[in-house]
Each structure stands twice: as structure tokens, then as C-alpha cells.
Amino acid sequence: xxxxxxxxxxxxxxxxxxxxxxxxxxxxxxxxxxxxxxxxxxxxxxxxxxxxxxxxxxxxxxxxxxxxxxxxxxxxxxxxxxxxxxxxxxxxxxxxxxxxxxxxxxxxxxxxxxxxxxxxxxxxxxxxxxxxxxxxxxxxxxxxxxxxxxxxxxxxxxxxxxxxxxxxxxxxxxxxxxxxxxxxxxxxxxxxxxxxxxxxxxxxxxxxxxxxxxxxxxxxxxxxxxxxxxxxxxxxxxxxxxxxxxxxxxxxxxxxxxxxxxxxxxxxxxxxx
Amino acid sequence: xxxxxxxxxxxxxxxxxxxxxxxxxxxxxxxxxxxxxxxxxxxxxxxxxxxxxxxxxxxxxxxxxxxxxxxxxxxxxxxxxxxxxxxxxxxxxxxxxxxxxxxxxxxxxxxxxxxxxxxxxxxxxxxxxxxxxxxxxxxxxxxxxxxxxxxxxxxxxxxxxxxxxxxxxxxxxxxxxxxxxxxxxxxxxxxxxxxxxxxxxxxxxxxxxxxxxxxxxxxxxxxxxxxxxxxxxxxxxxxxxxxxxxxxxxxxxxxxxxxxxxxxxxxxxxxxxxxxxxxxxxxxxxxxxxxxxxxxxxxxxxxxxxxxxxxxxxxxxxxxxxxxxxxxxxxxxxxxxxxxxxxxxxxxxxxxxxxxxxxxxxxxx
Amino acid sequence: xxxxxxxxxxxxxxxxxxxxxxxxxxxxxxxxxxxxxxxxxxxxxxxxxxxxxxxxxxxxxxxxxxxxxxxxxxxxxxxxxxxxxxxxxxxxxxxxxxxxxxxxxxxxxxxxxxxxxxxxxxxxxxxxxxxxxxxxxxxxxxxxxxxxxxxxx
Lengths: 273, 365, 153
Hints:
With 365 residues, chain B is an alpha+beta fold. In chain B, 33% of the residues lie in helices and 24% in strands. In chain B, the strands form 4 sheets. An 8-stranded mixed sheet of chain B has the order 3-2-8-9-10-11-1-12. In chain B, strands 7-6-14-13 form a 4-stranded antiparallel sheet, with no helix packed on it. Chain B has a two-stranded antiparallel ribbon with strand order 4-5. The model of chain B has no long low-confidence stretch (mean pLDDT 94). Chain C has one domain (12-135): Jelly Rolls (Sandwich), CATH 2.60.120. In chain C, helix 2 crosses helix 3. Chains in contact: A-B, A-C, B-C.
């Protein structure tokens, strides 16, 4: 019987540097592929001899290639971040809930990404662009610390010019020589003219950024069940057996990482929950 | 299902062993009741009794020879179903992952109380009932033979009656025993609960139970229901804990709680684990190991350079809320079976039933 | 005034009085609306385009500290003595805005305390929001994973 803790081998076939501490790796199965991943889901990626961490997919190749954008913040993520073509990694998945685009048909999509939160949102944006006629307006607001720290910069620049998408890039830190916006993501968000009865929002980034952004959306009348956020907690198993990823009643590997704000707002406001 | 009288447990233990089971039961060791593999029924703790209280546990010699007149020891049967340490898989330089070889284990658990039987069921829900069940747990669980024992001698920290798990053992055991007349040899009323139990009962010496014997058994257990050491306050615990997230009471507990995690180690339903990835010195061989973990560990909730729950308040709140509240949301039902181990083994004597009482007062006061 | 909810609290006559101090303006890319230290003579409601607030830092040139866009109120130093700009402002791309004469606004507020109070409250709400977003930026949420201020064991 399939042992849920046993990884399968995936080989790095491509590595692209995104920023000074983030890289995107593309993985192809060595033996059997894992089942198909959907936007919002994550894999448990194992770096030989070092350890395993949950990483959301930032892209899904048609041929089953898994694309993950990794920020080096610890020993395991550093190893995954550094993994060059040919490196064998272990992968388990797909795990977790998905961005719910089904409920968004016929609506305006407002996507707010903070820092590396853009990575889990990228498959959502690509999926929405792939069914463009199903939605009304698609807005993407992406925040980064400085202009050099945007992920997928070339693609983002194309999206800025793209007719199908309203994209605003904004940086937190004062900047020189940056023609774009300078300010927190809630600033362009607040400037949006939102039709609350036909808006679905998707937020991903540091928790305070998602809370502040959700507050702006709620203030504009968007119902809390139509704001989706992607949350993170410590994960050891990814399959609901180890107990680490709890947030109140939720097991984020199983009931998340994508959760609607109505469910999660009362949990996020309790310190140390 | 058959009810019969059996004299002594030697026969039962022998037959189970000859069937290839490792028989595990309570023994006396180091001043405590310790679950261990039995070579014969003589190792069972006949004549031993227990005095328990918050932060207190003492064995003492009884005047009779009762085999099961003691309540829970510091371990629970989870040790055998969900081991404290095990290797999950190994890999070599070629990168292929091989599940660890686990010898097939068939355990016969002898002396499972109602609380612990319920606890095994809860572990089954968590580890075996989800979308990605733990195969090793399922194998061990499937191969079990369970001999439950109805409690006739509840301990001072026991509150199984108020949790609906005892003192009578619930359904699901292969055989359930009730100890009778402990001064006149060891006589048990044995009730089969499954086909496997029936089959085993048929193979050991037994005789029909007389009406007065079945009555005596039933009365002894009923009597035990009224001699519980304590009770969990009756109320919607899930709702109480949701409403108590920002209670002033957590600060009070935190002044006492050492966050030592004893409660999670002795609790028969605590299941949290963590993984450790190791390599040998050459770096050519790597393994993943799993070990028990506790939500009281400071880095249990480690994320982005710090722990989400670093204060003692938040970690105690997490434990009790999960056990009595959010377990309902995650797995259905309560996570607590009323065995009282956490009360006896807390070095500062924190009583989970009392803390709930005080949270309730805090909420309504 | 469909573009903003900023003045919803004012009565119709109050709004009329407020807008009596206004005139429409437009700027080309790179035009400076005002300079740091200069007299604060106006406040603007941006209609279209983006305005950068900046300050000169020796060695770094003109550093943009924040950008404002359509619906944003620019400039409130006109309400607080010594009525001088704390930062400079520059148009990024073409900008259209409604400019309000600060001296006339102050006179209006002195004459009609109720209008003055409503205006001040409105401005306070804008300033509060700017303060919150500035604090959010100070948190440096996208920064290093282990911030210097977090306690380590």
C-alpha cells in the first residue's frame, strides 16, 4: 500500500534565479509521476540528507513538470534553492486545498501578492488568463520590498502591458529610478473601484499583509467568504498525521493552505493561536 | 455473544502466545504499573493497588489478590500501535526511497480499560481514518487481539464515566473480562465481543456463568461508576474553548505549567510526531525517522525564524483546546477519554477537569 | 464627484463651499508640483495619473518615498503651521488633478467651524490611512526571514 511519507524521485531540469535569495526549479519525475497538482497546492520537497519542507507550486507544466519557487530561509530551503539541473530531489504530493476559481466565474478577480506570496498565486493567474472570457476584470497587485525583489520579473513586466490584466507593481522601500508605485499593497488596493457584489479576491503573502489587505476589501463591501487566503504553518508530514500545522480547528495541510477569510479571520486575530 | 467464567489467565496467555501473539500486559516495575511483553500470566500485577492524585502516583500492596484493581500507569497502549521512534524510509546516493523493513507484529493487549479502548479507537480515527492513512499503524491495529477489562476499582484521577468511555469497556474488544471474587483465586467473567474472541474462548478452559456471577460483575462495574475520582464538567466543551481563546485564565495556568510535556507523553490519544532526517558519516546513506513530538515543545510551531506559539500560555491553550475542543472539528468526537494520566503525571498537579471548570467560570463570571 | 468618497460627510452647501476654492490642473511627465520646504499653498485631489513624493538624499539623488494615484489627496501641510512642504512632489506621466487654494480653505474653516471640523476629520482619516500603510512598510514584511528584532534562544 502506498506509504504517504515515502517520497518519489524528481530531477531538477531547469533552474532560474529570481532574486538574490529566490530561485525557481523545474522538476520532472525520474520514476512515476505524482498525481496532477492544481493551483494553490503544495508538495513536500526533500533535499537529500538535509530535510523536507512544504513548497507551493508556482507553475504546472503540461507534461507533468512541477515548478516550485524557493526562497532560501533555512537549511532545507537553501539546499532546494541551490539545486541545479541534474539534482535528484524527493517529492510528495499534491497536498492541500486549491484556489477556488469555480466560484469566481462571471466576477472580477482581485489578486494581491506580497513578496514571495506571488509564487502560489502565479498558477492561479495563469489559469484565469487561460479562461479569460469566464471573468470580468482581472486585477493583480504585487508588492515587493524593492524593485529587484519581484519574482518572475520578466513575466510581470509583460503582464503590466497585457490587455487582459490590470497589473500594478508596488515597492515598500523608498526607491530611486523606479517608475512604478511606491507604497504598501493596500494603497493601490484601496484605489481600486470595487464592485463588491461581483468581486472574488485571492491573497497571498505575509500574514499581516493579508490581514491588512482583507480589511481594505471588507471595507469596500466584499463578503468575507469571497476573500481567499493562503496560509502557512510548520509542516512535518503534509498528510494530517503529525499535528504541527494546526491553526485552531484547521489542519492546514488538509483544510488549507487556501482558506476563505470568513473561516479564518477569527483565528488570525488571536495572537499565538 | 458467549459469556463464560474462566479461572486465572494462564491458559489465555498461553493460547495467545501459541497463536503467535506477543502478549502485552501490565506488570510492576520501578514502582509503577508498566506495560510489557508477558512470558506468562504470573507477571500480571496481582495484589497491587494504586493511589493517585494530582501529581501523585504510588503503588501499594492490597489485602486481596486482585489482578486489575489498579488504574492507568504512565504509559498507554499507543506505545505499541504508534511507537515513540521508528524509521520511515532510507535512501542511498542513487536517490531511490525504500520504506523501512518493519517486522510483522501481532500484539495481544491484555488488560485494556474502557478509557484505553476508546483511546485506541481515537488513534484509529486520526492515524487510520484520514485521506492518507499511516500504513504502519493500520498494520499493527489490524493484527491486534484485544482483551479488555471492565474497571471495578476506579482511581482518584479517573473520570471516564463523565467522558462516556468507562468504567465498562465499550464495544470492539475481542474479549472483555470482569474480575470476580479476588480473594478466592482469580475468577473472571469473560464476554466475547468478536468472532475471534468467541473462537479463543472456546479453546480455553471455561464454564457457563451463573446468574449471580453475571449480576455480581454488572453490579461491581455499576458501583465503580459512582466511585469515580472526579468528573469533567458537563457542557459544550468545544464552544467553551472557542469562546476562551483570549481568556484571562491562560495566564493563571501558565504560572503553574512547566510546559514539560509529560501530559502529552502519557496521554493515550496524543499522536503528534516530528520527523528527523539523518545521514551516516559518509553521507551516502540517509534516513528519515519519526519520533513522538509534543505541542509543548518550543519549536513545535516553528515558522520563519520563530515559533508561532512561544509563550507557555499559548502552548497550554493549544493542548487543552485541541484535546477537548478542536479535536471535534478535526476528527469528530473528543480527544479525551478520561483516563486521568495527565493529572497524575503532571509534576505540578494541573487537573484538566478543574481547568475546564475555571475556564467556564471565567467565561460566565 | 463620482471619483471619491472623501467628501461624503459634508452637506451639499459645505461641499459647494469647499469646491469653490478649487480649479482643475494638469501636469506633464516630470513636472514638479512643489518642492520640499516651499510654501504649502494648495492641496490636490488626484483625478488621473501618478504623483511621486520625494526628497533629496545626498548620494542617492531624489528618492521616492511614496506614490499617490487617482482618488488620493495630496498635501496637508497647508493646514498646520508653518505651512511648508515636508517633501517634494513630481508628476509621473500625465497627471490631472483638482487643486484647492489653501489660504481660501483656511479662511473658510475659520469662518465656518463646522465645515472646518468636517474637513479636518476628513484629512485626519487620510493621514491615518497613510500612517497605517507606512507602518506596514516599516514592518519590512517581505524582508529577511529572521528579522533582527526577533528574540533568539
